């Protein structure tokens, strides 16, 4: 498949083979999240945003596996690194007390692994100097809140609309959809406050006189507050809310959170699991804000979970954090390093900014009946509809035109093209989406 000329070609989706595959899958798989019956064929040709399904349909994938494949399919930088690693059995490195090298010297080994991934993350994260690796985003969040609790306080602050993962600790911080949380126990002491996205007139109580007058500032205020800031271990925040609907916080809200951190010394955890790794045009989306995070949680495109923090926030005692795979899985970390290096080598932050702007301009010029808002930063893009039904119909119609998209929030559709998406691919994606919206209308 030649990326320069590839185009989506759909004959029948889901086709007969996909139907059969899905049926077989569900004989064994527990019910989970399934958006549509698209069955990627890993044995067929795929490159950049183009992939082939089990019935031979070629699709333009603007989901990037919910940001877990920031470079799309078969990026040569990643595939070369993986092909070069010719140990036949995938090796996992067990436990915190095991080290493994991918050669010599440690600063530049033949195969960079978990140690080099941690080094890359530290150098990408101003003021943060240590990393604990795990497997998933939820574990990265779980460890982030653990280190904050170990350092100070027994309360946490989360925001309406937040999503932080599905382990019980991370789940206790979720405020996006009831289905994620209902019936499960929660860790105590978690307070939720509005995540303000109001640009002009604020309707969520954040607009008054700085942090002493906003929703969280009021609760922490030394005289009229109800919570002693010393009791608060962390404020966890997505710099742009993901599952909650690609919501972009207002500047005022961000300034207030920065002031609250400065005033009370409460740790800020930036959840960059969806927004990080260059997607918004900065390496971390929090860099668009005045907030200095004390801890960053990352995962997805890194292929491992990573809790990145200041050395003084991590507990000193050994054994406070650990996991069988807590030193990182070598092959996954190798892929993570190749991804981080590709972002720098190919200027992908710059590309994300440029192509994101192009996408927003084209979407704004397109005839899109039923669309209420077009927003995003870099390639973390969203189109909000007037109703949830319309959004769902558009996701299905886009698929029938060969474009893969995802919903988020209540009635929003998200677009996550690969970070190296080209001008031609953005034009194609917007055109297919516009056709889908018009079909539904
Ligand atoms: C912002 C955010 N935090 C945490 C998670 C959980 O990550 P994982 O699914 O790897 O556990 C996700 C997953 O979508 C996410 O978007």
Automatic annotation (TrEMBL):
Keyword flag Transferase: yes
Keyword Transferase belongs to the record: yes
Gene Ontology biological process terms in this record: gamma-aminobutyric acid catabolic process
PROSITE patterns in the record: AA_TRANSFER_CLASS_3
Record Gene3D superfamilies: Aspartate Aminotransferase, domain 1, Type I PLP-dependent aspartate aminotransferase-like (Major domain)
Keywords: Aminotransferase, Pyridoxal phosphate, Transferase
Cofactor(s) in the UniProt record: pyridoxal 5'-phosphate
Molecular-function annotations in GO: pyridoxal phosphate binding; transaminase activity
Family membership: Belongs to the class-III pyridoxal-phosphate-dependent aminotransferase family.
Protein name per the record: 4-aminobutyrate aminotransferase or related aminotransferase
Protein source organism: Natranaeroarchaeum sulfidigenes
């Amino acid at each position: 498949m030649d990326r320069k000329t590839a185009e989506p070609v759909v004959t029948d989706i889901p086709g007969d083979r996909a139907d059969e595959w899905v049926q077989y899958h569900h004989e064994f798989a527990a019910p989970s999240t399934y958006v549509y019956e698209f069955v990627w064929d890993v044995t067929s040709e795929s490159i950049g945003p183009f992939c082939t399904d089990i019935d031979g349909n070629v699709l333009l994938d603007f989901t990037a596996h919910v940001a877990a494949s920031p470079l799309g399919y078969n990026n040569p930088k990643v595939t070369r690194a993986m092909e070069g690693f010719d140990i036949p059995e995938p090796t996992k490195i067990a436990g915190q007390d095991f080290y493994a090298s991918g050669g010599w010297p440690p600063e530049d080994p033949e195969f960079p692994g978990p140690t080099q991934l941690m080094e890359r993350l530290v150098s990408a994260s101003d003021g943060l100097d240590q990393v604990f690796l795990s497997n998933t985003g939820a574990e990265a969040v779980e460890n982030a809140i653990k280190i904050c609790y170990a350092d100070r306080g027994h309360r946490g602050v989360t925001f309406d609309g937040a999503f932080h993962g599905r382990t019980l600790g991370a789940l206790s911080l979720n405020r996006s959809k009831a289905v994620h949380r209902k019936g499960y126990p929660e860790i105590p002491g978690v307070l939720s406050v509005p995540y303000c996205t109001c640009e002009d007139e604020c309707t969520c109580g954040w607009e008054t006189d700085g942090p002493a007058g906003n929703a969280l500032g009021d609760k922490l205020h030394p005289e009229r507050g109800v919570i002693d800031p010393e009791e608060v271990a962390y404020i966890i925040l997505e710099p742009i809310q993901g599952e909650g609907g690609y919501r972009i916080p207002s500047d005022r809200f961000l300034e207030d959170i920065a002031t609250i951190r400065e005033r009370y010394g409460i740790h800020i955890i930036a959840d960059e699991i969806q927004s990080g790794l260059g997607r918004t045009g900065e390496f971390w989306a929090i860099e668009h804000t005045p907030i200095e995070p004390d801890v960053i949680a990352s995962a997805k495109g890194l292929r491992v979970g990573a809790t990145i923090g200041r050395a003084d926030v991590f507990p000193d005692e050994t054994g406070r954090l650990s996991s069988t795979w807590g030193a990182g899985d070598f092959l996954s970390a190798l892929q993570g390093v190749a991804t981080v290096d590709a972002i720098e080598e190919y200027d992908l932050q710059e590309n994300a900014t440029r192509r994101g702007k192009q996408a927003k301009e084209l979407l704004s010029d397109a005839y899109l009946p039923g669309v209420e808002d077009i927003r995003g930063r870099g390639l973390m893009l969203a189109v909000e509809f007037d109703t949830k039904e319309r959004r769902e119909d558009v996701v299905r119609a886009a698929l029938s035109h060969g474009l893969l998209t995802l919903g988020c929030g209540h009635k929003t559709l998200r677009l996550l093209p690969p970070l190296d998406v080209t001008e031609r691919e953005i034009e194609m994606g917007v055109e297919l989406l516009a056709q889908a919206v018009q079909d539904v209308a």
